[in-house]
Amino acid sequence: MQRLQLQLRLRFRLIPVVLLLTIISQTLGAFGAAAASGGPVAVTLQPADNNPVVPANAQLSVTFDEAISRGTSGTVLIKEVATNNTVGSYDMATDTTRLSISPNNRLNISPAPGALQAGMDYYVQITPGALIGSSGYFSGITDATAWNFHVVAADTTPPAVSAFAPSSGGSMSATGALSITFNEPVQAASGSIQIVRRDTQDAQVVSVLSSAVTGSGTNVIRVQPPTRLASSTQYDVLIDNGAFVDTVGNKYAGISGPYIWSFSTTASAVAAPQFVYPLRGASGVNGDAPITLQLQFQTGMKAGTAGNITVKKGIE
């Protein structure tokens, strides 16, 4: 009888313990599944995976779909494909020389001089949790085939402009966009573009890292002035030295003075005004009293040097 009572007591004591462990296990499992499904996603690798012509002095980068910051631990590894030997190991938490984060959601990796050798194949790995975004930790790049490339001789030639649009001396609408075509892909690095009104020297200063500048990573950079330009006006464009760099970090020299890239805006067509008072088709307006006609235009207006406003009697 005593043995039976002891067994019953043990069984009843075990039930809550087993139930508690089950709840904890299910909770941790659910949390793990949620954490695994979040985190920043790599949208662009520079150089691209399997790129066969990466200069030995190339700068590497990963662009994500959201803002990122450094995790408390994690490593970026560069390894030889043939031997799996590590030629670069950079600690995410502490290395500010080889690793940096740009405002445009980009992790920049600067291999140490001599780390990449011409004629060799390499791959890059990033340990899970090395980076964190608003949605969680980055899951990392752990597969040796996910980001690999072939290295060629170093590139020391800076990028050059192939074409401006509008061309220097050309024209565009006051609401149009500027574009710069380079002879190779470039990245927005730092600095600004100034659009300077020649008669007043007023300037719109546009950061190359702002949303007004697009096309980073391609040959064509597009600049949409945040504020509408004045019609029938001449402008000069200035670009900071180093505002754009090629894939190895060679800087575009920029434009430091007027008349190098200049253009004029065309006269804008004026949209028909709205009739404020009296409204179109209004009735019952007292024609015996003075009337002030009110029109509202979409843009600022001033009196011209000629012309009349004529009021006619309508058909009854």
Automatic annotation (TrEMBL):
It comes from Cohnella rhizosphaerae. It comes from the Bacteria. This is Ig-like domain-containing protein. Signal peptide: none annotated. Residues 39-150, 155-265 form the SbsA Ig-like domain. Keywords: Signal.
